[in-house]
Structure of YeeE/YedE family protein:
Amino acid sequence: MTTFTPLASLAGGALIGLAAVLLMAFHGRIAGMTGILSGLVPPLAADWAWRAAFLAGAILAPAVIVIAFGDVIGFESPMPMGWLIAGGLLVGVGVSFGGGCTSGHGVCGMARLSPRSIVATLVFMASTAATVFVTRHMIGLV
């Protein structure tokens, strides 16, 4: 069962958009999480400091919300940890082949009307829909 959270989702989306605009305005960079993270893997990028600050904010902000307001939107997964790790690794491979992640293509690239990002986002979404259909309706995992 998925909880319908329109206000929290709207607020989160607005904050993601604001962060993307501010990063572009102040640093001229796309807010693609895998690109940001890749600059923190040795050898460190010359501009590692803003990358570390951005990533720390992405991790600490939800923690502050939970501390301040409690578990506003609970998260749990019925999938075993091994499946989640395998899925994460597959996403990493896809990011390499796709030349970016959902945040880079879906948020920033589509906002710039990049044809490459629009196609990449359509592929991400179609793949997601197919994966959910197969796991829920054909295999019956969830």
